[in-house]
Specification:
By secondary structure, this protein is of the alpha/beta class. It contains three helices and eight strands; from the N terminus they run βαββββαβββα. The longest helix has 12 residues. The radius of gyration is 15 Å and the shape is globular.
Length: 122
Protein backbone atom coordinates (compact mmCIF):
# COMPACT_ATOMS: atom_id res chain seq x y z
CA UNK A 1 0.00 0.00 0.00
CA UNK A 2 1.25 3.48 -0.86
CA UNK A 3 -0.10 6.56 0.90
CA UNK A 4 -3.68 7.49 1.64
CA UNK A 5 -6.23 7.22 -1.15
CA UNK A 6 -8.56 9.93 0.15
CA UNK A 7 -9.83 11.58 3.29
CA UNK A 8 -13.38 12.88 3.59
CA UNK A 9 -14.40 15.64 5.99
CA UNK A 10 -18.00 16.59 6.68
CA UNK A 11 -18.27 20.37 6.23
CA UNK A 12 -21.08 22.87 6.65
CA UNK A 13 -20.38 24.80 3.43
CA UNK A 14 -18.31 23.21 0.65
CA UNK A 15 -17.44 26.56 -0.97
CA UNK A 16 -16.13 28.06 2.27
CA UNK A 17 -14.15 24.91 3.07
CA UNK A 18 -12.67 24.74 -0.45
CA UNK A 19 -11.58 28.40 -0.31
CA UNK A 20 -10.05 27.78 3.12
CA UNK A 21 -8.01 24.76 2.00
CA UNK A 22 -7.07 26.45 -1.27
CA UNK A 23 -5.92 29.73 0.32
CA UNK A 24 -4.36 28.45 3.54
CA UNK A 25 -3.01 25.04 2.60
CA UNK A 26 -2.46 25.46 -1.15
CA UNK A 27 -4.71 22.62 -2.32
CA UNK A 28 -6.20 22.72 -5.80
CA UNK A 29 -9.80 21.90 -6.63
CA UNK A 30 -10.29 18.78 -8.75
CA UNK A 31 -14.02 18.20 -8.89
CA UNK A 32 -17.41 19.47 -7.72
CA UNK A 33 -20.56 17.38 -7.39
CA UNK A 34 -24.11 18.56 -6.88
CA UNK A 35 -27.34 17.01 -5.64
CA UNK A 36 -30.26 16.34 -7.99
CA UNK A 37 -31.69 19.71 -6.91
CA UNK A 38 -28.46 21.47 -7.94
CA UNK A 39 -27.02 22.14 -4.46
CA UNK A 40 -23.29 21.76 -4.03
CA UNK A 41 -22.71 18.37 -2.38
CA UNK A 42 -18.92 18.01 -2.45
CA UNK A 43 -15.65 19.58 -3.53
CA UNK A 44 -12.61 17.37 -4.05
CA UNK A 45 -9.19 18.92 -3.50
CA UNK A 46 -5.85 17.49 -4.56
CA UNK A 47 -3.34 17.02 -1.74
CA UNK A 48 -0.30 15.54 -3.48
CA UNK A 49 -1.26 11.98 -4.34
CA UNK A 50 -4.18 12.06 -1.89
CA UNK A 51 -7.64 13.56 -2.38
CA UNK A 52 -9.35 15.58 0.34
CA UNK A 53 -13.11 15.28 -0.11
CA UNK A 54 -15.06 18.14 1.47
CA UNK A 55 -18.56 16.67 1.78
CA UNK A 56 -21.92 18.03 3.01
CA UNK A 57 -22.72 14.53 4.26
CA UNK A 58 -20.68 11.40 4.73
CA UNK A 59 -21.98 7.87 4.46
CA UNK A 60 -21.92 5.62 7.49
CA UNK A 61 -22.32 6.17 11.19
CA UNK A 62 -20.47 8.55 13.44
CA UNK A 63 -20.76 11.92 15.08
CA UNK A 64 -23.23 14.31 13.48
CA UNK A 65 -20.71 17.14 13.37
CA UNK A 66 -17.08 18.03 13.88
CA UNK A 67 -14.09 15.76 14.04
CA UNK A 68 -11.73 14.30 16.58
CA UNK A 69 -9.00 13.91 14.01
CA UNK A 70 -6.16 16.07 12.79
CA UNK A 71 -5.35 16.58 9.12
CA UNK A 72 -1.71 17.60 8.59
CA UNK A 73 -0.12 18.80 5.34
CA UNK A 74 3.61 19.10 4.63
CA UNK A 75 5.20 22.52 4.13
CA UNK A 76 8.78 23.59 3.55
CA UNK A 77 8.80 26.64 5.82
CA UNK A 78 6.75 27.28 8.96
CA UNK A 79 7.38 31.03 9.00
CA UNK A 80 5.93 31.43 5.50
CA UNK A 81 2.99 29.18 6.38
CA UNK A 82 2.28 31.16 9.55
CA UNK A 83 2.42 34.46 7.63
CA UNK A 84 -0.14 33.09 5.12
CA UNK A 85 -2.46 32.00 7.95
CA UNK A 86 -2.08 35.35 9.73
CA UNK A 87 -2.83 37.26 6.51
CA UNK A 88 -6.03 35.22 6.15
CA UNK A 89 -7.06 35.88 9.76
CA UNK A 90 -6.60 32.23 10.78
CA UNK A 91 -5.25 31.93 14.32
CA UNK A 92 -2.64 29.30 15.15
CA UNK A 93 -4.11 27.38 18.12
CA UNK A 94 -1.12 25.18 18.97
CA UNK A 95 2.38 24.49 17.75
CA UNK A 96 5.38 22.21 18.07
CA UNK A 97 8.88 22.84 16.76
CA UNK A 98 7.82 21.38 13.40
CA UNK A 99 4.03 21.87 13.18
CA UNK A 100 1.46 24.67 13.32
CA UNK A 101 -2.13 23.76 14.26
CA UNK A 102 -5.32 25.67 13.45
CA UNK A 103 -9.00 25.01 12.74
CA UNK A 104 -10.92 24.99 9.50
CA UNK A 105 -14.35 26.70 9.30
CA UNK A 106 -16.06 23.50 10.55
CA UNK A 107 -13.80 23.04 13.58
CA UNK A 108 -11.60 20.30 12.12
CA UNK A 109 -8.08 20.44 13.53
CA UNK A 110 -5.59 21.07 10.72
CA UNK A 111 -1.80 21.24 10.77
CA UNK A 112 1.09 22.34 8.59
CA UNK A 113 4.35 20.52 9.29
CA UNK A 114 7.99 20.59 8.26
CA UNK A 115 8.61 17.25 10.02
CA UNK A 116 9.76 14.59 7.55
CA UNK A 117 9.26 10.91 8.16
CA UNK A 118 12.26 8.66 7.66
CA UNK A 119 10.80 7.15 4.47
CA UNK A 120 10.52 10.66 2.94
CA UNK A 121 14.22 11.38 3.30
CA UNK A 122 15.67 8.09 2.06
Amino acid sequence: MEGIHHLALRVHDCDIAARFYGSNVGLHEMRRTTTESGELRAVWMRAGTTVLMLERSIRGTGAESGSGHVLVFPVDDLATAEQRLHASGVPVTDRTAATLYFEDPDGHRVGLSTYRFEFETS
